[in-house]
Amino acid sequence: MRLRGLRTGRLGSVLLLLAGLGAVTAGLAATAAPAAKDKPTAATTPAAKATAKAAAAGIQPQDIPTGFNFPTAQPVVDGWVAKNDTTAMRNHAWDVWGGMSAPSHAVIRLQHLPIWETWYGSDEVFVAAGAPLAAGPRTITRKFRRPHQFDHLRRAGVAVPAGADADQIVSFNKFSGASGKFLMASHPTPPGGASVLYTQQAALNTLNASWAQTVPVENRKIVDFPREAIDTKPVMWLVKKTGLTPFPLWQGTGADATTNAKNPTPTTWLNCVLVDPKGDPKTGLRPATPAEVKQANLNAKLVCDAKRYLYAPLAMIYSFVLSADEAKDFNQAQGVPGMTAEAGDYAVLAAMHVTTKEIVNWTWQTFWWSGGKNPPNDFPGGSANLNAKVRGPWRNYAMCTAYSMVVPATDPKGKPVVCFNPFLETSPGIPDGIDSNCMSCHGTARWPGNNNGGYPATYLPNGYINFNDPTWFATQTRTDFAWAIPGDAVQ
Ligand code: HEC
Hints:
Largest sheet: 8 strands, antiparallel
Mean pLDDT: 83
Helix content: 10-25%
Number of strands: 21
Number of helices: 13
Strand content: 15-25%
Shape: globular
Bound molecules: heme C
């Protein structure tokens, strides 16, 4: 959670400068309370020494604290799904959100990290066999990259429509302690069989070749993640340290909201919020004044309608200050840079996918910043059922859930449940993303997962995936809904 005031930014830059001098090279200066004892370092100034000491202290992944109903017993969640109790599902999604965004013990540049930031990154989990694992306390580095989702068509060998790369968002994946530790360990697969490390392509190939023809297609799978597992995909946007930076605001697919109703990517949104790093945290979302519009940083890639500009202080969005290394990463990860990130600028959390293994098919929920302004008809979601356990800037996100593929949940001809993230699934790289369902697409996650680029042809509008369907799963191994396994497995 951000600290009050703007001290964080200035101090962050000072620490960065020192890091640049060589005291700390491994990304961020990180500390966990209480601070570690002084150790001799190459640092020459007291401040640099403090930075190095902080980095040595290390961070452990923290669990969601009690009080947030996580994990909820499987029969309870299954009961909501069977009855399509959307209120119970939404209450739970907000609980998970409140729990994972609660402040952790870990501090970076005076800012308490939310709990999810202490979790394992892909770069820690998907490492070469035999490489040292992030078993103990460690520093946190934010390794930005392009969301892999945007490459579906390209990977399938299909020509990518113009503009598919034009998104300025960057992301990475985070795996909770239970999920990350599961991925970093080998598992007898099938249970009682040979041990397999799921992060390695060679091991997955051996496993995939080992299935006897007698094994039903749906049972050719890795063992399940533990029920405490949570996987997330945070999505970041850039806010410059000076001036007011336009941030696109999702207001649906209407002509007054986007210039492209079919693929309404953030760059096509007409409603934008001018985010002010110097803004009074007590100010809420409001129309921008002509003077504020004049201060807007130019972002040639956005089509924001200046007459619709809103204004929000930075404190309304979860953000952190970019280090020089992170700014470099950020620029490289952007499809088409609309703005260049520099040290001291802010990465703001635009959106976040969250999935939990509390039920067999996982629970699926996604969040995007709305400033409390819901889109028309709450499509695909809004702030309904938000509870008091969600604090600070985390209250300013909208949300939708997909706890089943269709309703009724077990009816292959059931009505598809639509839930997508406006910052991600609107990409032309994802056909019909605005009708999509998280569970249907992730249900087809498999190794080697080649046909149609891993794209379920039937996921729309008939969202039901039969896990015994050889069309998807013959000669394949299911990866327990985790696309990260086929996406990131190490060669
Ligand atoms: C059309 C297919 C598709 C849809 C729809 C989809 N995803 Fe994904 N998702 C992917 C792919 C592919 C990845 C990439 C894995 C990577 O980043 O390496 C991914 C990654 C993720 C990750 C990172 C961990 C993992 O399992 O790989 C999470 C969490 C996630 N998605 C959640 C969601 C949620 C929540 C929704 C619905 C709001 C959703 N996804 C919709 C295909 C999809």
